[in-house]
Every structure is written in structure tokens, then in C-alpha cells.
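Thread: "does anyone have the structure for this chain?"

Original post by V.I.:
We have the sequence but no experimental structure in hand. Need at least a predicted one for the grant figures.
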Amino acid sequence: LTLTDIVRHPDGLDTKTVDVRDYDAVRQACKGQDFVLNLCVVRDDPVISWEVNTRGVENISRALVEHGITRVIHTGPQVARHWFDHDFRVDDVPLAPGTHPYLLTKFLGMEISRAYAREYGIDTVWFLFNLLGPRPVHHVERASYPPFTVVWEDLVNACRLAYEVEDLPDHYQWFNLNSYLGHGKYSVDKARRILGYEVGERVERYFNRPLD
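Reply from O.Q.:
Generated one for you, C-alpha cells below.
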């Protein structure tokens, strides 16, 4: 397992310093790897978000081809959610990133990786969600559970399934990832169908409250 970042690991684990904007650094980091998981993101700077979210994906894709790596996972935002907040059972809908630099640059990265996946047979998975964090461990008051949010344990399980899947349609798929299914809005049926993904603990129970 090779961990890379541009800062020190908070728990002191050994990491390689790699800037995803630097192709030579990415190429060297990918050497000898069987699989790549890309969690890089910049949200608010329109220039750096392009360099990381779009050009960074291109650098990873080029390195995969050079080293013959045929499996990669990327993560990205819910580039459909804002257009479908009024709907239910939203699943495999057309992506509509709009003009926000975060959403647009991630979407362009998705399109680049799609082209590489189809040209070179790289099994490419994108997990899309709104928030990522720890699962609740105590009852939560004065708050509702957030939409399109995944907890760490479910993301880890989804990544394992994406690594193990044997027949990924078109070598490229994106999936909603969601741990809070009580809304009935953002469906994970596609991830269930192709990857065998299931939510672990039904964490929305921590938000239950009696009705007067």
C-alpha cells in the first residue's frame, strides 16, 4: 500500500509527497502498483481546481497506460443533485455540472477518464456523493440526516467491491454513494446491481425522534 499526499499524514504514517499536477511525480508513484485510488480535490479556486480535478485525472490516466494498470477509482461531487432535489428515486440520471468550477472541473475529469477507459480497457469507477464523514454513534438532536452523504465504512466497502468487480460495463461507470437512504431520493440501486454494494448500519436511526 502506497500513500501519497502533499502534506504529512496526521497520524504519522509513511507517505510519498506527490503533487497530482506533476505528471512525472504521478508516473513515479504509480510504478509497480496494481490499482489506483484518487481522492484528490480542490473546490473553490477556479485555476487550481482545473489543475487538480481535471489535469490531475489526465495525469493519472496517462500513468495508468504507461504502467499497464487497468483499474482505478475516482471520487467526485453529486453533479446531478441540485437539479433533482425535488424528485425521488434519483439514480442514473444525466450529469449536469453547471458552471461552478468544482463541479465543472470534476465533470471534465470524468469525461477524460471515460475516454481513457474505453481506449485502453481501464476499469474506471467514479463514486459521487455530497459529504463524507464518520457515522453517528449517539442520538442526534435538532438536526436531520444529510442527503447524498456516505460514511467512511460504506466508502471503504464500496472501494473494495469496485476493486473486485469482474465485469464492469464499458470499462467505465459512475455510482451514487449514499449511506442515508431514508429520504428515498438518491438511489444506490445501480451500485447494488453492478457492484453488490449495500449500506452497512442504517445510520438514520440515530436521528429518529418521537412525534408529539
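V.I.: this helps a lot. The longest helix spans residues 46-67.
O.Q.: and The two ends are 52 Å apart (CA to CA).
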